[in-house]
């Protein structure tokens, strides 16, 4: 702006100096053409006025530009301050998120499937219990004695008979198999409710698992979802089994991952050992054109082998053996001439490393549960450790502890309700998982026989909360408090907890059915129990309540 004023003043001074009237020449006279001079002066004045207007416009434009630049500078400064504030909020949010994540992990380690150890917390019934008439101690004791205790002897006799026959059948199976080409079958093991003594509903079914291994020089290399490689969420709890040569590197040679030229040869593997015909892998029960063990192929091989073994020893027995269920390949049934029958499951499994965790080919579960991703994905079962944990804890509990009784009663009620309203996503394994969590959370004295009613209420309330939150964690996976005496693999203790209710989160219809079945079971509980309970005099019942 000062430069513009200086230019205007300079122009005016120049005009004044050059004006002929102010500085006339000496001895000069006024020219005669005055009008012409005046006209030129007017034209000059008009041009100066236009120049002045142009200069003023330039000055105004410069002032506007200056203001715009100042305003832009202010906006930029404000944006910088806003960005700094936003960066601070972002950093603060990240810190809060990390603190929450650390707290969550500590919470899971310190409060595994939090039960609520205080008696006052468990004394408050949930919404589902409002208006529910819960059976008292006398009614529960009478029901348990009449309906459940009588089946214990039958289970023991059935287990002994099935185990003896299964051992004989597997010995015959080994004799009919080719030791150089077929899988090697080991001795069977009993798992599940029949061997944990809490099975209550008939027909009784024994669950036996049969470990097997490949013939020499092959071996199994197992890979689980928590071994480091990424598995999709729907494949958690599963693993794959790769059939390899015993002398083969677990990571594999680079010649298996790259295409070598015709004139190039791997120095570690000869052409004979590196190329495996697809027929050879299929003979080893692998999925087509892969080295991964196929569960469907294994079950077909096992069924054929069992059939051959039975044909060899059938003359020794006075009963028939057949496969009872098409959708359960390991389901067998013994049929006596009298018309009676005994059912049992004989399922091949693969041992995970040197532990008692097993990959099971076909895991018995509800038809409403999520499907197996593929036949090369094997479900992991921890049934052996579950049985050992119950046996270990039972040694520390009072005599005639009520933990098994609670599970038996709840399993009976659930089974009866499902027979009335149809099956739901809730299974006996979920009920067993609830008991395992409570056994770990509650002190030993809380499982005294006289506390049956209180512990049964605890199981129902815990299950109600799990249904409400859609979270029931697997007892062993992610549980850092597993007793060291069990020798449980550390890799599964350090894994992320596995939510058994995860398949129902996105399947709202099944979840709704499961919740409705639970509520119906609560409402019908007294009627179901009274149906199998002898009449108890009112005075006797009141006397027990007063105690």
TrEMBL record:
| Segment forming the signal sequence | 1-20
Respond yes or no to whether keyword Cell membrane is given for this record: yes
Keyword Signal (UniProt): yes
Instruction: Name the membrane topology term.
Output: Single-pass type I membrane protein
GO-annotated cellular components: nuclear outer membrane; plasma membrane
Its function, per the record, reads: Enhances Ca(2+)-mediated inhibition of inositol 1,4,5-triphosphate receptor (ITPR) Ca(2+) release.
What is the name of the protein in this document?
Inositol 1,4,5-trisphosphate receptor-interacting protein
Q: Which organism is it from?
A: Oriolus oriolus
List the gene name: Itprip
